[in-house]
Amino acid sequence: MNMVTTAKAEAARKYIARGFPVMPLCWPGQDQCCGCGRGHQGKQIGKVPLTEHGSKDATLTQEGVNEYWGKWPDANVAIVIPEGYFVLDVDADRGGHESLDILQERHAKLPKTMSVITGGNGIHLWFKADGIRNTTAFAGFSGLDVRGIGGYVVAPPSIHRNGGEYAWIDESPIAEAPEWLIKLCANNHRGGAPVPKTKENWITQAMQGVNEGQRDDVCTRLAGYYLTKIPPDIVREVLYPFADRCTPPLPHTDVDKYVDSVSRKERTKGEDPNTGDKDIYHYCPPTEPAISERYKSVTESVTNLTDGQEPMKSLQSQGIENVTKEQPSVTESLSKRIEDWVKDSSGWFSYDDIDKEFGLHADNDKLNRRVIIKRLKDSGIVEQHIKNNKLYRYINTSVRLIDFKSGNKVTPIQLKYPFGIEYYFNTYPGNIIVVAGSPDAGKTAFLLNLIKMNQYDFSIYYQSSEMGKTNSKIVC
Question: CB neighbours (10 Å) of residue 224?
């Protein structure tokens, strides 16, 4: 059998040389269709095995690579995870980068290891550890999955359904998984312990997210609990992270529905069987509204809940329990100050830039900062970098009105263009003319003719990366 020499086949050979079994996957075709002709759709495109028995047909031989990529030259490459390894899969579309940052803030920074940027701007982080199995919603976080024994990952230079290419971002040796990461992987497979009946532990456990059959009930119970302590609009913000961690995620509209429903119920005198709490189904507005700026600042970003704390405990820890009108207020909330700073910024900025600017060091402060930036993003105030998910920039939507009628009259430059197209438009001082076209369409020839037609009337400086001095002399 002839050796197949496509880029994907060559990559597959490198993987089997390192002891990683490989198999072919379907690939993106034209018009957002699957290229293999089997009708795969949506997220399946580029990720479904082409072999009859899937990962069981993975190969570790040159003959196997030649057979598979000889039959399907355009097939994507998958690495089947061997025993002793696992991959932490960070899905950008489901908030995986933000979840990974929170995970590291809670525990520790992950070690440098072999890693891949996926075609969808996610990341595959490789680690060594025995006995790790596949799991979704790793540690309760949306956008984090684990690929372990029997699982597989799409590998470079495969193509994502959106046209993006999988690529190595770090080819360092695969690191040993830290102990805390291994423990989290193990806990994910125990199905979770029964929800404790003590109030604090049940809330902490529930806020990590639940499975589909429990989402509605647990969301209603959490709403009932928090409505005895904080207003409904704050309860919604508290429960949105819970909804995102559920499997599958609970829509925010459902959270709103349950909060509204519970807040309308009359006070009951029963007890919650799990916590012993009385009167858990009704929010009673405080007799004196707690409306200081500092109270609003903290309750706006009550996301320290993601650290397993109850919102009211967080408020108490900061000395703002029972805030009243008589207490001094803070003139600006962190949310307002960050938003003002963002609007004054220019270019891209990162979380680190914000932390340095405002002196944010505590985990809770950083979690609040993350939610503030997410709110700005959702509001269309900032946008995220298309390739680097940790960079943001301000979207300036201000409009500057220009009065063309009363503007100074400027004489056009008498510049000649090939094909006489100067008769159809004017060129003014300061204009930038862009010549665009497909490869080999004649863009360079157009520019060289432009030089030839105007070289005696203007000083021309031609910068090119396509030719040297000899070529220029011959052409001109």
Answer: 24
Q: Which two tokens stand for residue 254?
A: 């459902």
Percent of the chain scoring above 90 in pLDDT? 29
Region 219-246: mean pLDDT is: 80
* Amino acid letter for position 15: Y
How much is the pLDDT for 70?
93
What distance in Å separates the CA atoms of residue 346 and residue 291, rounded to the nearest whole number? 34
Residue 188 — very low, low, confident or very high, per pLDDT cuts 50/70/90?
A: low
Are residues 19 and 82 in contact, defined by beta-carbon separation less than 8 angstroms? Answer: yes
Q: What is the mean pLDDT of the chain?
A: 78
Q: What is the pLDDT of residue 196?
A: 34
**Quick check: 209 pLDDT over 70?**
yes
- Where exactly are the structural domains of the chain? 7-188, 199-317, 342-394, 418-475
Please report, in angstroms and rounded to a whole number, the separation of the first and last CA atoms in the chain. 52
Give the per-residue pLDDT at 418.
Answer: 94
Q: What are phi and psi of 351, to 5 degrees?
A: -60, -40
The full 3-state SS of the chain, as one line of letters, equals: CCCCCCHHHHHHHHHHHCCCCEEEECCECHHHCECCCCCCCHHHCCCCECCCCHHHHCECCHHHHHHHHHHCCCCEEEEECCCCEEEEEECHHHCHHHHHHHHHHHCCCCCCCCEEECCCCCEEEEEECCCCECECCHHHCCCEEEECECCEEEECCCECCCCCECEEEECCCCEECCHHHHHHHHHHCCCCCCCCCCHHHHHHHHCCCCEHHHHHHHHHHHHHHHCCCCCHHHHHHHHHHHHHHCECCCCHHHHHHHHHHHHHCCCCCCECCCCCCECCCCCCCCCCCCCCHHHHHHHHCCHHHHHCCCHHHHHHHCCCCCCCCCCCCCCCCHHHHHHHHHHHCCCCEEHHHHHHHHCCCCHHHHHHHHHHHHHHHHCCCEEECCCCCCEEEECCCCCCCCCCCCCCCCCCECCCCHHHHHHHCCECCCCCCCCCCCCCCCHHHHHHHHHHHHCCCCCCCCCCCCCCHHHHHHHC
Render pLDDT for 125-176 as a digit per residue (tens, 0 to 9).
999 999 998 887 787 787 899 999 889 999 999 999 888 899 998 888 999 9
Alpha-carbon dihedral 297, 311, 102, 365, rounded to 10 degrees: 30
Q: Residue 266 has what pLDDT?
A: 34
